[in-house]
User: Fold this.
Amino acid sequence: MRLTPRASRAQGILLAPTKATRKPRQPSVSNFEVKIGPPKLTRFEKARIIGARSLQIAMGAPAFVPLDVGYRGPIEIAMAELEEDALPLSIRRVLPDGSTQDIPVKALQK
Assistant:
């Protein structure tokens, strides 16, 4: 009899290991320290965030800010969301040695 990854030699059943470790939570924005890169949002990061979020809005995602009476395009809505800190996004900055830091957009200065 060939044993599969789910089979055990002793009892015939091997339960899948439980996920005992959890991903550490990000510290609150008030005491967050930016260790990699400038303490503000770069123009390239801003363009990437607005572009990605406007694509989501154009595909039907709900807006995180209240919409005014007149029609606003997806790019204007994405810019308004970024200005009002309504986006629950993080930016991953990477150094050449491979070390990374995930920085919430709310922790970066505009």
Summary: The two ends are 63 Å apart (CA to CA). The first strand starts at residue 90 and ends at 94. The domain at 37-61+72-107 is CATH 3.90.940.10 (Eukaryotic RPB6 RNA polymerase subunit). DSSP finds two helices and two strands in the chain.
